[in-house]
Specification:
100 residues, mainly beta, Folate-binding fold, two-stranded antiparallel sheet
Length: 100
């Protein structure tokens, strides 16, 4: 069982949450100028690292708020959680984001 610490409600079981994908994906600056290939890249292409990764989560069965987490994709260790709009903390350990 994975305990995910909601920034508002504290640690809760992973079954209460919904995964929202990679964090900090900005919208295109000029969407009208994008080609179909550029739109496909923006909508569907995401990083899938083996190591520390910043991702979005929603506490669906609790406060229903979105937040970000720094999670290791192999061990599921969660190093930090932070509210939307807050600056991301650095990835922990000797490896950086995307490294084991």
């Amino acid at each position: 069982m994975l305990l995910i610490p909601c920034p508002w409600c504290g640690p809760r079981d992973e079954s209460e949450f919904r995964y929202g994908g990679e964090a900090h994906i900005g919208a295109p600056a000029n969407p009208g100028s994008l080609s179909d290939a550029d739109w496909a890249d923006y909508l569907f292409m995401r990083n899938n690292p083996k190591g520390w990764f910043r991702e979005r989560w929603m506490h669906a069965q609790g406060c229903r708020r979105w937040f970000n987490a720094v999670r290791h994709t192999v061990s599921n260790e969660i190093a930090a959680v932070y509210r939307m709009g807050e600056p991301p903390p650095p990835a922990p350990g000797p490896g950086r984001e995307g490294e084991t």
